[in-house]
Amino acid sequence: MEDYRKHFDYTILRPSAVYGPRDVEDRVVSKFVLNALRGHTIEVRGASEILDFTYSMDAAQGIALASTKTCRHDIYNITRCQDDPVTLELAAEQVVELVGQGRIEVVDRDMDFPKRGRLSIERARTDLGYDPDFNFSEGLPMYVDWVRSNYDKLFRY
After folding, report:
1. Is residue 23 included in any domain, yes or no?
2. 44 in any annotated domain
């Protein structure tokens, strides 16, 4: 590894809990939104778990900034790092409110998954000029609108 570090520049980016347009896969926010839209129960594994939800445009901004900077052997958290942390239960409640339907069932946290919480973005802010624009309460409505607008195209089957 040390030899590799001497000969190659690299930058490691660590996005967290990314959500936004075109995210219809098996991720927390997309699961919550799709379950609510379908009238299914939203299962929250660990109500007080905090995730550092990051809107896709903010993640893209961080990636673009990192690709234009000369960084050697650096690691950056590309997250939102909100002042008001968002728990899984709060995220589910906001989804249900925005969608206008859905039920929430809180179950125990899955102990196989690590606790993560908020990640510091100070290094990305200082070195890259990274400054995320969207907190969860701003990004979530845009994402819900996008899923609603594209639902029939995405799920034809």
Report:
1. yes
2. yes
